[in-house]
């Protein structure tokens, strides 16, 4: 595959059928100083696309909004949904190089991709996203609340009021803002999918505030599902375990990155393309009788 951007490394398997996918067990020690991180700087690059996947129009002509859709889990969802026939609207903070790569990857599959950068902690941005989506595509069928940050600290005493506010505003307030803006445009059989985490169920000693927000997302999902059941709008969530995304080198130390994911029963971190099908299931008519549920994709950890 030719580079889509001169400074963006190519991913050798993408676009080639019947090739084995080589999934790394451990990672080179690395660290990025700014969250949520840049995917194009990671080594190895996350695997966002399964070259052996055969689409079947599960989301034909649907319109999807994805927060944090530029990279990591969001990129894998964007590309898989495009393969299944959806047009994609991506909000991201400021990772323009990653976002443009994802846009070109979506367009490669014959679908449209609208990029809307900006900080979702500003509530007015959610309405701007909705307005631009309606103006471009005329409808909204699926919302995926996926953005997030994490700032590890050894003790709760090290979590400043600023960090606490930043984590909650990014990880759960944005879900409220975007859902409220999108909801008036959702019709019967629409779907809302939230990204929670295994930490909502198991906790993590150095991610106390992050885990608390993921617990909030889990209960937000269940409560919103009950609230919207009469409207036949389904609300579910996916709870990833350790997944190789830009958030990992931008939040963990070099030493932690080197062993990331090896504590799972499957002894490795997951790749974004292994997680995206869970979102596809919840977005499609295959899950028409599923609402208020959490799908766990975590390498075998029992929760």
Describe this structure in words.
- By secondary structure, this protein is an alpha/beta fold.
- The protein has a single domain, classed as NAD(P)-binding Rossmann-like Domain (Rossmann fold, 3-Layer(aba) Sandwich).
- It has 8 helices and 7 strands.
- Helix 1 packs across helix 8.
- The radius of gyration is 18 Å and the shape is globular.
- The relative contact order is 0.16.
Q: How are the SSEs ordered, and which strands pair?
A:
Layout: E1 63-67, H1 72-83, E2 87-92, H2 96-107, E3 113-117, H3 123-137, E4 142-145, H4 161-182, E5 191-195, H5 199-202, H6 208-228, E6 234-240, H7 254-258, H8 272-283, E7 294-297
Parallel strand pairs: 1-2, 1-4, 2-3, 4-5, 5-6, 6-7
Short description:
The protein is an alpha/beta fold. The protein is built from 8 helices and 7 strands, in the order βαβαβαβαβααβααβ.
Radius of gyration over alpha carbons?
A: 18 Å
CATH superfamily: NAD(P)-binding Rossmann-like Domain
Termini separation comes to: 40 Å
Q: Helix-strand pattern, N to C?
A: EHEHEHEHEHHEHHE
How big a fraction of the residues is strand? 5-15%
Structural class: alpha/beta
Overall mean pLDDT stands at: 93
Order of neighbouring strands in the sheet with most strands: 3-2-1-4-5-6-7
- Count of helix runs: 8
> In CATH's first tier, which class applies?
Alpha Beta
Secondary structure: helix percent: 25-40%
